[in-house]
Design a protein that fits this description.
CATH superfamily of the largest domain: tm_1862 like domain
Radius of gyration: 23 Å
Number of strands: 21
Oligomer: single chain
Shape: globular
CATH architecture of the largest domain: Alpha-Beta Horseshoe
Number of helices: 13
Strand order of the largest sheet: 3-2-4-5-6-7
CATH class of the largest domain: Alpha Beta
Strand content: 15-25%
Number of domains: 3
Bound molecules: S-adenosyl-L-homocysteine, iron/sulfur cluster, FE3-S4 cluster
CATH topology of the largest domain: pyruvate-formate lyase- activating enzyme
Length: 461
């Protein structure tokens, strides 16, 4: 049963003894979504969320292992939390997520003051582990090697009451030679169409406007179900739930983006014209050595298919620079592809060698300095092409889902276009959570600015 609550529960009168949990989340949306499920699970044993670390009875670090920097951050946070624990000995520290999945009991060897270690496959066990740790003097460590055969449905306390994340597939069956994800998230496992549709329906009834389907490889959704289905089938089904105005999905793998998915995005009214399909590199030899399973020409053709069907769709990517053995020329091929495709946005990163991945042991690692030089150069090109893409919106009207107040100004609102562009504009708080029409009048590489059109509210059927 899903317990869909928009806000962290408050302590009720007479319940002052309620325990408080503080949660810090690193990494991808999948981790953010997992944290919401941790909050839902802990609510059932009387923990309510606090934003004040120092008053927490339980401090949770939900970790990411994608790059060395993310992993280092875990230990530096734990060092700081240790000091808090010294002044409040009853407070407990729990570490979950991808670093915990990988390190298991080694984590308590390195940080013996940690009370609980749990992995990505046994999140549903968190309440039991917390109760056990309350009674134990020794750290409680539990990491499963795989997800349970029957996927547990866990309660959730979402941090937004407008947009909701819904995991549809866990794990990844690829073995890209740089990537730790298959190691810490396991094999692909899809939730059923029925379970997901029921969750989306409940979200609609609870007033949510937008649902983002999540997966490390969301375009592989349904390959493992019997009968086999694909993401397009799910979009079509979820598209019948009228109260949800926008459907999104991340992250896609270019190889699995079959035409049926593009067709569904084109035909399902609420499916947003936004494709995050990371190419990683724009060079055939590098792609082969990364074991991505496609070459540049295949990727180009995928983009052509999208743009033929949906000329205004946004296409975004992740890019890695300084992959072992990457030559200057090969790096420049990535730069050229960014210019040629003219991505709407890209997440860029310097290659980071990860344990358990083949490329970490390859000779010809690119020197750090060189990697960062390439990264800086690539970032300027990405900003240029994103700016070019964003300028296409100038003078046009766009439908925006208003997400909240802009952090930079008390009178400004912020929201997104269907193509996932951030748009800031002056407006009244009463518009938060609504679909409005905004006329775009300025653009930078990362966001757009505009003015509310009159009438501003989009008709909602
Ligand atoms: N499943 C997605 C990506 C998930 S990981 C896909 O296949 O595209 C998110 C991003 O982290 C990746 O797209 C990649 O660009 C980056 N990444 C993964 N491993 C990395 C590493 N070892 N060094 C640097 N970046 C890495
Ligand atoms: Fe990592 Fe590759 Fe799987 Fe993406 S497809 S999660 S990059 S192994
Ligand atoms: Fe990081 Fe794990 Fe996500 S390694 S990117 S939190 S799947």
């Amino acid at each position: 049963m899903l317990n869909i609550t928009a806000r962290p529960s408050e302590t009720k009168p007479g319940e002052d003894a309620a325990k408080r949990v503080y949660i810090e989340t690193f990494g991808c949306q999948m981790n953010k979504s997992d944290s919401e499920h941790m909050l839902g699970l802990l609510d059932e044993i009387g923990y309510s969320q606090t934003a004040n670390l120092k008053s927490a009875d339980l401090m949770i670090l939900n970790t990411c292992a994608i790059r060395e920097g993310a992993e280092d951050k875990v230990y530096s946070y734990l060092g700081a939390w240790r000091k808090i624990k010294e002044s409040r000995p009853n407070a407990m520290i729990a570490v979950g997520g991808c670093v915990a999945q990988d390190a298991g009991s080694n984590l308590v060897k390195r940080a013996p003051y940690v009370d609980i270690v749990f992995g990505t496959h046994n999140l549903h066990r968190l309440p039991e582990l917390v109760l056990k740790a309350q009674k134990s003097n020794a750290p409680v460590v539990e990491v499963f090697q795989e997800l349970p055969e029957d996927l547990p449905e866990t309660p959730v306390i979402r941090q937004s009451d407008i947009s909701a994340w819904v995991s549809i597939i866990y794990g990844c069956d690829y073995n890209c030679t740089y990537c730790i994800v298959p190691y810490v998230r396991g094999r692909e496992k899809s939730r059923t169409l029925e379970v997901i549709t029921q969750e989306v329906k409940e979200l609609g009834e609870a007033g949510y406007k937008e649902v983002t389907f999540l997966g490390q490889n969301v375009t592989a959704y349904g390959h493992d179900l019997d009968p086999k289905i694909h993401l397009g089938d799910l979009l079509r089904r979820a598209g019948t739930i009228d109260s949800i105005k926008r459907l999104r999905f991340i992250t896609g793998h270019p190889r699995d983006l079959q035409e049926g998915i593009i067709d569904a995005v084109a035909e399902v009214e609420t499916a947003c014209e936004y494709f995050h399909i990371p190419v990683q590199a724009g060079d055939d030899r590098t792609l082969r050595r990364m074991a991505r399973g496609y070459n540049v020409d295949f990727y180009r053709k995928q983009v052509e298919k999208i743009r033929k069907r949906l000329p205004d769709a946004a296409i975004t990517s992740d890019l890695i620079v300084g992959f072992p053995g990457e030559t200057e020329q090969e790096f420049m091929n990535t730069v050229s592809l960014v210019e040629e495709i003219c991505f709407d946005a890209c997440n860029t990163a310097a290659y980071s060698p990860r344990q358990h991945t083949p490329s970490a042991n390859w000779e010809a690692q690119v020197p750090e300095e060189e990697k960062y030089e390439r990264l800086r150069f690539l970032n300027t090109v990405v900003a240029e092409v994103s700016h070019r893409r964003n300028k296409r919106y100038l003078g046009k009207s766009a439908e925006i889902l208003v997400e909240g107040r802009s952090e930079k100004s008390a009178t400004r609102l912020t929201g997104r276009t269907r193509t996932n562009k951030i748009v800031n504009f002056e407006g009244d708080e009463s518009l938060i959570g609504k679909l409005v029409t905004v006329q775009i009048d300025s653009a930078n590489p990362w966001a757009l600015r505009g003015n509310l059109r009159s009438p501003s509210l989009v008709e909602i059927s």
